[in-house]
Description:
It contains 10 helices and 14 strands. The protein is α/β, with parallel strands linked by helices.
Amino acid sequence: MIKFENTGKSFRHQAVLKDIRLGIGTRDRVALVGSNGAGKTTLIRCLLAEYTCGGIVSVNGMNPRRHRTEVLQQIGFVPQLPPPLRMPVGQLIRYSARLCNSDPQRIAAVAATLKLDVDRIWKQSFVKLSGGQKQKILIAIALGRDVECLVLDEPAANLDPDARHAFFDLLAARQDDTTMLISSHRLDEVAALVNRVVELDQGRVVLDEQVIDTVDLSSRMTCTITLSRAGSAMEKTLRSWGFNHVADTLDWRGTIPGPDRLRFFGMLSRYTALLEKVNMEAEGIAAPLPGHQATSSTIGQAQRI
Length: 305
């Protein structure tokens, strides 16, 4: 579907992309990874025809600059940084839908799935929304229409845990028939979403590998955390993940989206001094009650720290 052939881009005689040769087909869900400055955003902007570049860039055989309208109608894009749009949210949704022959109500429905009621902010200026609200609107615009390809740049940034889970559900529903290009500087953020990893370094493709595709994007994990002592900073963080304190104990319980496990463990690693026990199980498997040990069958299906 997408092809980069000998693609290069320079700014003031400094090469940012160097002889990129990359093909992305239908059902490919590609993690585009690399450090800051590796060329990820530049490559995406060349794909979207925001930059001129050397070599060839094509989407379904079409040049994105010569066939800009046709190409963009096939792509749903979520940028890393929301644009400073001063138009009201309602006007933005109607405008975006009209450009792509979509139904504004479908975009609003995706926003509702992400726990955002667009009716409440319909007349507010987009630029004045919170970071999370902006991200949900941009995701809703990208996913609220039928496209062949989703190009997502740090798509889950600024999303709360419930919205992240809803976002993964939306992607799971489209993973069999939609090409996805997901840019991130951290592989662990997107590992569960993709079946292929492409790494850029200093403007070149240095890795292009298929990965095992076994994680259910719509799964949820039930987690019980026992603290060794109370800690206000960690308790605040657990609340931000939707966890609740179990009365008269040092236990906290909550659920996380299955694809968020790596990110969740990364958060926990910052508070290892406060952790007594962590028990994580696939949703639907009974968790041990406070003060009781897990049975052998439960332990066999649980992840413990």
